[in-house]
Design a protein that fits this description.
By secondary structure, the chain is of the alpha+beta class. The chain has ten helices and ten strands. Strands 4, 5, 6, 7, 8 and 10 form a six-stranded mixed sheet that branches. The protein has a four-stranded antiparallel sheet with strand order 2-1-3-9. Helix 7 packs parallel to helix 9. The chain is globular, with a radius of gyration of 23 Å. The protein starts with 16 loop residues before the first helix and ends with a helix.
């Protein structure tokens, strides 16, 4: 007697798009992840990494698209983008939904093991908690710089980073505490500033920036930090050129302080520059300007 044929069905693929649309409706930028927590590019040019970008990294690739379309920078709250090509097909292949915490003014403290969770329960204020496969995500209201490995098993995911969406979790979300912000200040080798003080020029001592006003200086530093932060490629060269521009404008008048320089060094280190590279670039800029 012929035995009935057994039909093997493919395992069901979770429908992730509704989750992404739900997040977007709540102002949380979402994006699809491939297996292995690898994001998709959200434009046809960059699909399959054709542009040579780095979708497996948490930084945008060096594509030439008008809008950055890789990793955390691709996360969006625009339902049209989420449901249109190429992401329309990406959701059918996706393994998980991710989101950009910083884009939603959130910070995720990623606790990767039991010891890290125990440490957090002793040292951090309680907040909304989401269970992960190996530990917990503690989610705070407020954004900050993302830093991996602030201590064993602890990563901070906020601006310029993404995290997997694992559900709303439990507990009440609280404001981002100073205890978490302090974790990102790895006494940056106290951001190893230049090994010498900033040398004021002959106009120093006037009590204000002789170029215009203190506001002019603040705007210049903010623009320099932004230029470094938004660099997609050639970070070394961008950092050096930015340092050179700041020093050529403000380096001789006495208005540039170590606090200003620390902001520049911190921005550069957030892009992957080492403290040594920052100091070398700062020194070379001084030399190029004859300072």
């Amino acid at each position: 007697m012929t035995q009935p044929t057994t039909i093997r069905r493919a395992p069901a693929v979770p429908d992730l798009l509704p989750t992404a649309l739900m997040l977007a409706a709540h102002g949380i930028p979402a994006l699809p992840l491939q297996a292995g927590k690898v994001p998709f590019g959200n434009c046809a040019t960059c699909t399959g990494n054709a542009c040579g970008g780095r979708p497996n990294m948490k930084t945008p690739g060096p594509c030439q698209c008008p809008g950055v379309c890789h990793a955390w920078a691709a996360a969006t709250t625009d339902s049209t983008v989420l449901t249109s090509p190429p992401w329309a097909s990406a959701w059918r292949q996706a393994a998980a939904v991710a989101y950009h915490p910083g884009g939603a003014v959130l910070t995720v403290v990623d606790l990767d093991n039991a010891a890290a969770v125990a440490w957090a329960r002793t040292n951090l204020p309680p907040t909304q908690t989401v269970a992960t496969t190996r530990g917990e995500h503690w989610i705070y209201q407020g954004a900050m710089r993302s830093v991996n490995g602030v201590r064993d098993g602890v990563d901070i995911k906020s601006t310029m980073s993404y995290a997997r969406w694992l559900g709303p979790g439990t507990g009440t979300m609280t404001a981002l505490p100073d205890a978490v912000r302090a974790l990102a200040v790895k006494a940056p080798s106290t951001v190893r500033l230049a090994p010498y003080p900033i040398t004021p020029g002959p106009t120093a001592g006037a009590g204000h920036c002789p170029h215009r006003t203190a506001t002019y200086l603040e705007r210049g530093i903010a623009m320099a930090v932004q230029r470094i932060t938004e660099a997609r490629a050639a970070v070394h060269a961008t950092v050096y050129r930015t340092f050179l521009a700041v020093l050529s404008t403000h380096g001789r008048c006495g208005c540039l302080t170590e606090a200003h320089v620390a902001r520049l060094f911190t921005a550069a280190q957030a892009k992957g520059e080492t403290a040594r590279h920052c100091t070398d670039a700062w020194t070379n800029a001084h030399t190029a300007l004859g300072m």
